[in-house]
Amino acid sequence: MTGLSDAAKDERTARIVLSMLVEPNDPVTSRLLARVGAVEVLRLAERNGEVTGLDSVNAQVWRDHFNASEARSITERLNQIQRSGVRALIPGDAHWPGALNDLGDAAPYVLWVRGASSFLSRPLPDFVTITGARASTSYGDHVARELAASVAANERVVVAGGAYGIEGAAHQAALAAGGDTIAVLANGVDRPYPAGHRDLLDRVADVGVLVSEVPPGAVPTRHRFIARARLMAALSSTTVLVEAGFRSGSLAVAHCASELGRGVGAVPGPVTSAASAGPHRLLQTGVASLVTNAADLASLVEHEGLRPASALRAGLAGDQVRRPASEPTRTL
Known about the structure:
Blueprint: H1 4-7, H2 11-21, H3 27-36, H4 38-46, H5 56-64, H6 68-71, H7 74-84, E1 87-89, E2 111-115, E3 127-131, H8 138-153, E4 157-160, H9 166-176, E5 180-185, H10 198-207, E6 209-212, H11 222-235, E7 238-241, H12 250-259, E8 263-266, H13 277-284, E9 289-290, H14 294-306, H15 309-312
Parallel strand pairs: 3-4, 3-7, 4-5, 5-6, 7-8, 8-9
Antiparallel strand pairs: 1-2, 2-6
C-alpha cells in the first residue's frame, strides 16, 4: 500500500479511511488508534517499521488485515462517499454519542449516519435498546411492539438493529406511535439489509437515523453483526431482550450492556418455547431484571437514569470490555 497517509492528512479523513480498510473492532487497530491517532495508524500500516506493542511477525499480520484492494481506490471511494450525502461522525463532533466513549479502545473508528444525527447527542437515559430473535413468535412480536410503543410514549428513543422479528417489530411500533428510532446496521447505511426491510429502514432514515461503523456500500458479515452488538449495548442506558435462542447473537448485546454497567431486562416466555431460552438464561444468571410489561421497563429505565454517570461506567472499561467477536454466538 502506498499513499494512505497522503490521502488522509487529518484525523477525520484518516478515521474514514480506516473504516474502509479494517474490519470494525480490530483490537490492534483500536489500541493504536486510541494512543497515536488515525493519521499515525495509517502511516504505520503502509510502512515496514516497528509497531509499538508488536513484534515484527505480528506487526506484519496486522498490516495484512488492511484491505489492499480498497486501498488502491481510496481516493475514488472518498469522492463517491462525499457525493452520496452520507455523513461521518468522529469523536469530538457535536452529534457524536458520548456514550460510545465508554467502550474505551473498543469504540468505533467512525460512525456513518443517514438521517437525523442530532438524535445521537441526546442524554444516555433517553435511549432504550430493544432486541431479540429474528425468528420471533407472535407473542414476542406483540411484546416488542408494546414495549417500543411505551418507550415512544415516554419520549425516549428506541434503538434496535434492522433484522426481521423483534427488531423490526420494535421499529414499526415506534414509528406508528410517532416516536424516535435508531437502527444500528452491520452494513452500509446506503444499502438497507435485509432487503425485505428496505421500506422500513428508509422510513427510519426519514424520521430517525440509520447508524453503522462500516462505510457506504459495505455488505453485512458475521463479524460485523457480532461487532455491532457492543454499539447497540453502549448507545442505551437500558437493553431489553424480548426473545432469543441459546445461541442468538442478540444475547451478545445483553452481555455487553451488562459489562458496561448498563441496565438489562429480559422478557419471560413459555418454558416450552426455544425462543425464550435466552431471556430465561439471563434471568437465571442474574444478568437481567424481569420485564413483563411496559411499567417494568419504565421502572428499569428510570432506575438507570437516576444512577450517576460513574455508576454507568462501573462495568469493565476500555480494553477490558469483552469484545463481542469472542462470543460463541451466531448472528440474529
